[in-house]
Amino acid sequence: MAVEPRSCQQKQYDYLLKFLLVGDSDVGKQEILSGLEDGSSESPFCSGSAYKTTTILLDGKRVKLQLWDTSGQGRFCTIIRSYSRGAQGVLLVYDITNKWSFDGIDRWLKEVDSHAPGVPKVLVGNRLHLAFNRQVGTRDAETYATKNGMAFFEVSPLCDFNIRESFSELSRRALQRNGMERLWRSNKVLSLQELCCRAIVACTTVYGIDQLPLPNPIKSHLKSYAMTTYTTMSMSHHPPRVSAKKLRSVAHTPPNSLDNSRNCAGRNSCTLS
């Protein structure tokens, strides 16, 4: 956990997440971290991994990320075992110009799943700016990511392409896994269609929608929206209640009397007995 300055009582972030970057050596994990702004760049606990913090804005919430870049060498497997237990997300990085680095993702995936089962993961193909030397196809990587339940991005630190997008997607998945989605759901921007429906329904009634100079499909959609809104509001504020006296009177009413009350009115009459 980050230590808060004593002079400032208010947190500088809303959520704090710990992410791990894993992959073979020389796939460019440090290149990905070097393009991120703000925060410490030295590991406070271990010299065997690169450490950096950054803050992103996700749906109006400030999310602070603690990013750990473990070396791809085998002697640092103990670091992965220790830090993967406390990680909320993992980026599996390979080099699109190195087929061996992509083949090694299986080994890293098994290592992470054995110590942090169920943690959200994102597959990242690095060095997209060297696509003319590509050895790993985009379709192959997408298929592999889908098979293992991961999101997939191809990034380029040199062009600053898809770096923050990959971290934002991993943050979103990590917060959803921890049940935090409901906390920022109210901050989502409404669509233009939603805003128009709200404005029109607020100024008229369900029956008044027919008088509007609009196409019939739009009128039908507005009616459905209005009925859904009114039903939700009435159910939440005024739930229907049936008195016990009425229930008893209906229960003790003979079936014949109900049939007679229905048949006493003429077929062309609108009067209900």
Automatic annotation (TrEMBL):
Spell out the SUPFAM superfamilies in the cross-references: P-loop containing nucleoside triphosphate hydrolases, SOCS box-like
PROSITE patterns (UniProt xref):
RAB, RAS, SOCS
- Enumerate the cofactors the protein uses: Mg(2+)
The pathway where this protein functions is:
Protein modification; protein ubiquitination
Q: Which InterPro entries match?
A: P-loop_NTPase, Small_GTP-bd, Small_GTPase, Small_GTPase_Rab, SOCS_box, SOCS_box-like_dom_sf
What segments bear the compositional bias annotation Basic residues? 238-249
GO aspect biological process, one term: intracellular signal transduction
Q: Give the way it sits in the membrane.
A: Lipid-anchor
Q: Where is the SOCS box domain?
A: 182-228
Task: Write out the entry's keywords from A to Z.
Answer: GTP-binding, Hydrolase, Lipoprotein, Magnesium, Membrane, Metal-binding, Nucleotide-binding, Palmitate, Prenylation, Ubl conjugation pathway
Enzyme Commission code(s) on record? 3.6.5.2
What domain of life does the UniProt record list for this protein's source?
Eukaryota
| Residue spans crossing the bilayer | none
Q: Quote the subcellular location field of this record.
A: Membrane
Q: Does the keyword Magnesium apply?
A: yes
Record field: catalytic activity: GTP + H2O = GDP + phosphate + H(+)
Which residue ranges does the record annotate as region Disordered?
236-273
Q: Which Gene3D superfamilies match?
A: P-loop containing nucleotide triphosphate hydrolases (3.40.50.300), SOCS box (1.10.750.20)
Q: Which Pfam families match?
A: Ras (PF00071), SOCS_box (PF07525)
What is stated as this protein's family in its record? Belongs to the small GTPase superfamily. Rab family.
Instruction: State the NCBIfam families in the record.
Output: small_GTP (TIGR00231)
**Identification of the protein by name:** small monomeric GTPase
The source organism is: Clastoptera arizonana
Q: What is the lineage of its organism?
A: Eukaryota, Metazoa, Ecdysozoa, Arthropoda, Hexapoda
